[in-house]
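Listing 4. Sequential folding, example run.
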Amino acid sequence: MLKLGEFFPNFLANTTIGPIQLYDWMEKSWCMLLSYHSDFDAVCTSELASLVKLHDQFRKRNVKLMAISCDSLSSHTRWISDILECSLSKDKYLPFPIVADENCDLLLEELNLLTPNLETTHVTYLIDPTKRIRLSTTYPPNVGRKFREMLKVIDALQDISIVPPA
């Protein structure tokens, strides 16, 4: 697993909004990257539905959201309908991309977010504008993440990060 303070690896991936090179897509923003083993799991769907509802709060903090799952773009497209329905959103689109990692190459090898036997965990990385990891969390797949708490952590990290070095 990647460690705090390390540079998060840049990657190129197909997503629900087209191909993305992470660093280019982030620009000068923060990024919260959430990993999932597969689509349509009830916990995963409810988590992403929560993020739809809180998207404006993350945007106010200059945090871009991105999910990654070991399923195809066509699966993600069907999943997005469930996510939006669960979120009760009137929007017809998901306000953040989902990376398609069908062979789990990105999750398993480049980002080291899965074990070799594909045991699932839900990992969250918060990456700052310099592309360094500022937060990492790991949850068992049956436990949902609390994104209001993540917002508090982001507020604390961003307050620290704006203090000029001595």
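-- end of first protein; second protein begins --
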Amino acid sequence: MSSSVSSAATVKHLIMSSLKFCANLNFMFLESPNLLERFTLAKKAGFNAVEVGFPYTHSIEELVKVKEATGLKQVLINVFVGDVTKGELGFAAIPGQEDAFQASVLKAVNYAKALDCKLIHVMSGAVAQPSEENHNIYEQNIRWATQVFEKESIVGLIEPINQRTVPNYYMSSYGRAIDLVKKINSPSMRIMLDVFHLQQLQGNLTCNIESLVSAGLVGHVQIAQVPLRGEPDTSGEIDHAYLFSLLSKINYNGWVGLEYKPTNGTVAGLKWVENMGLKL
């Protein structure tokens, strides 16, 4: 190998190694049925940070205790979404549920402050056939949440989610999400760019990621392979080595959440990190 090729490879490695990965504990380390134990497993596997979409099965005190014991950074939580067994996926776009929505946001803020977590994903709820009423109440609720987040130095996130994965999920449009974030025009409301969903909703990943990040609209990135939601090195539509290089090139400096389903055990599946010249 020539010295120039070797130097290029070294530079690429140094750039990509600047990416920061956090384990999603509602998808990874499910070898343990206990969420609190997954913090310990993530730390043993080499992670420095985690995200937990649904922390409300445990008290604030329990979560703070395990977070402090492991020394892990809590990057992200979701708002309380209600009873998922009844199909509830949040209240933001549901007329008549304003009180439930506000309570869900305030509950999330209490958890986030105790955990020193700066990102909260505001889930929209399920709506079979969205109407203008849904659009209006969603904007009203997101504006209210933004004001709360501004006071607490927290960034709220809205995430376009494809309806093949989550049927009837209201916020399933990047166009609508972009328009709303621009309209609200606050650093306390941003888009959660989950590449798994972006690929299925929009495709054209390079152009879309570059434009969203460069416009300052992205507050957090998540990844998983399409269509089976496995590790980055599993077979599918996305070239994650290229994706990581792209994120580095455009100077994305936030966390990358690993919201994938391990195919043959969480720890065994982490071989992609070293194989791609990265680190946790």
